[in-house]
Amino acid sequence: MSEQIANNVSESSLPSTQQPSSFADIYHSSIHNRESFWAQQAKRIYWHKQPDKILDDSNLPFAKWFVGGETNLCYNCVDRHLPDRAEQDAFIWLSSEINQELIDTFPAVADAFSDLGNSVEFYTDYTKRRLTYNDLYKEVNYFADVLQRHGVGKGDRVIIYMPMILEAAYAMLACTRIGAIHSVVFGGFAAHNLAIRMDDAEAKMLITVDAGLRGGKIINYKNLINQGVEQANHKPEHVLVVNRGILPFKAQPIDVDYATERRISCDANATVDPVWLESNEPSYLLYTSGTTGTPKGVQRDTGGHAVALTTSIDYVYNGKAGETFWTISDVGWAAGHSYTIYAPLLAGMTSVMYEGLPHRPNPGIWWRIVEANKVNILFTAPTGVRMLKKQDETWMTRYDVSSLKSFFLAGEPLDESTASWLTEHLGVPILDHYWQTESGWPILSHAPKFNHKPHKQGSPGYPMYGYDAHVINEETGEPCAAGEKGLLAIAAPLPPGCLTTVWRNDKRFISSYFNLFDGKQYSTSDYAVVDEGGYFHILGRTDDVINVAGHRIGTQEIEEAISTHPEIIECAVVGIADELKGELPIAFCVLRDHEQVKSTENRFRLEQQIVGAVVKSLGGIARPAAVYFPQALPKTRSGKILRRSIRALAENKPTGDMSTLDNPPAIDAVKQSMKDY
Ligand code: AMP
C-alpha cells in the first residue's frame, strides 16, 4: 500500500452520515434536494479526489453522478478496512458440493485448495473457509498482479465464468482494482451465450474453472468455455483457468494456469496499486435478457455504484459493519454482484458465499449455516424457499436462527403462502422487495430501520429514496389512482448505482428504457398497482420476458434457439405459472410437415431435439417444460404472434380481445395441440 493511500485511510471513516429522523424526510430530501442528499451519502466511501459536481443532469436520460470524483471500488471494499478490521472475516465460504464423497472420488480437489492458498476446514458433508480482510487483500493483489502480467489493464473487458468459489470474488475485485471491466456470466448459461457476450464485450481475457458442481453433478465449465471461444468472432488473448482438480482437461495454447501464476505473485509478495477511476467510468457489465434476441450489456459506473450500495446496506437492509450478510444467489446475477460481493464488503460486513443447493446434504443446511455463522441478514429469491417448503418441515426448527434480524426476498413474486409459511417457521420479518439487474439495488422495499410504515405482507413495499417511482397509465402517462393498474415508471434521473447506459449502445438504452412519452420516464416493464395505503404490488411483465426461478429469460432467445431446427417453420414460447419456479417456458412449434407428429416416435424425437437445441444454446435454465405442435399460431393482422393469448390458452384462462386476430382457427389449433400431448 502506498503511503499516500495509507494516510487517506485514517482520514476516511466507515459510513458516517448524520442519521435523519424519518424515512419520509430521507425520501423527500432524496427527490427534492437530490444533490445535497447524495453529497451526504457520498461521504460513506473513500474518494481519492472529491467530486466537482454531484449530479450532471444536462443530458437526460443519461445522468452522471459525482462528476470529477475519483475512487476505486476494490479499494473501498478491501484496503479501506485494513486499519480497523484486518482480522475480521470478509468472506465465509461454504460448499456442500465439496463433501467427503467428492474428495474420496477426486483426491486432487483437496490438493487444489492448498495450491490456491486456501486453508480450508473439511467436514463430512461440507467444506468451509474463512477469509479475513487481510487475506482478501493479499489474494486480490495476487490476482490483480496475474491479470496485469497478462496484459489486462484499465478499460479492458474480462469475462468471468465461474461457480460460487472465492476465486470468482478475487477475480471481480482484482478487475475493479486495475480498472478492468468485468462481465460475469452465469454458470448455467451455455457456450452460445458465452460467445455472444465475448463478441459484444470484445473480451480480452476469460477466467474460468475446470468444473462446477450442482447437486453432485459435474458441470464442465472448461469445455463450455472452449466451445464459446470457438463460436465467438472476437477471440480472447488468454483463458485463465482456476483448476479445482475436479475434471482433467487438455490445456489450450491460450490457457494460463492460475495456481502457477498465483505462486509467482505470492512469492514476490506482489501488491498492485488501485487505479483511480473517474466516478462515471464503468466498473462492470452484466448482460440481461430483453425483448429482442441479443442480451443487453447493463453498464454500471464506479462512484455512484459504490455510494448507492453502501447507503443501501444502512437504509434498506439495516446492516452494520461487523455483521454478517448472506445473499443466496449466484455471482452471475445482479443480486450476487451487489449483495454477495460489493455491498457487504463496502460496508465492512462479513459476506457468506455458498456453493450448493438448499436441500443438500439435507433441507436444514441454510439454517445450520445461519446458526453456525450467526448470519444477521439473509436475502434470496422465493424459489429456493419454495423448494424447502416441499421438504420435511421439522428441518425448519432444528437450528437456532435467532441471530437473524430480517430475511429479504426478491427477483420474482413472493406468493402469500410461501411468505406466511416462512414467517410461521422462522419468526423473523420476511421482507419482499423489488429490483432489477438495471437498478442494481432495491427500487421498492420496506425499510425496517425506520419504522416508516408497518410491514405489509403481499407487497414489496414502497419506493426507496432516490427513486421517483410512480404507477402511470400506459396510454396517457398520467399517474394512476390507487387501485388502478399501470406501468411502474421512474422519473429521470435514475439515482446513483443504476445502469448508466447499455454497453456501447446509447440508442438501445433509450429505446429499451426511455421510449415513453417525454423520454424522461424509465420503464421497468412491470405492471403494478398502488393500494390505498401507498404500498406497491407488482402484477407481472409488460413484455415477453419470463422469470424462471428468479432469473429473467427473453422468450425470443428461446424461440431463436428452436428456430435453428430445420423442420420448424415458426414457434412461440410463453411462460406458464409453476408452483416451484414461478414460471416455466413452454414451446409451440409449427412444423413444415405437420404429418410428422402423427407418429409417437417422431414426435418424441422432435421434442428431444427441440429441448436439446435450447439447452445447448442457452443452458438448462431455459429448458422448455413442454413442446406442443399446433398447425398454426394465432397472429394479428400485422403478423405479430399473440403470445399473451397462447399463454392464456395454456393456463386455461380467458384469451381476452380476439378482434385483431387474423387467423381464428389457430386458436383451436393451439388448443388441439395441447390435447394431443
Ligand atoms: P432481474 O433483472 O433478472 O433481477 O429481473 C427483474 C424482474 O424480476 C423485475 O422486472 C420483475 O419482473 C421481477 N421481480 C423482481 N423482484 C420482484 C418482486 N419482489 N416481486 C415481483 N417481481 C419481481
From TrEMBL:
Pfam family for this entry, one: AMP-binding_C
Indicate whether Oxidoreductase appears among the record's keywords. no
Write down the superkingdom of origin.
Bacteria
Per UniProt, residues of the Acetyl-coenzyme A synthetase N-terminal domain are: 24-77
Keywords of the record: Ligase
User: Which InterPro entries does the UniProt entry name for this protein?
Assistant: ACAS_N, AMP-bd_C, AMP-bd_C_sf, AMP-binding_CS, AMP-dep_synth/lig_dom, ANL_N_sf
Query: Which PROSITE patterns does this entry report, sorted A to Z?
Result: AMP_BINDING
- Please list where the region (Disordered) is annotated: 1-21
Q: Give residue ranges for domain AMP-binding enzyme C-terminal.
A: 557-640
Question: What protein name applies here?
Answer: Propionate--CoA ligase
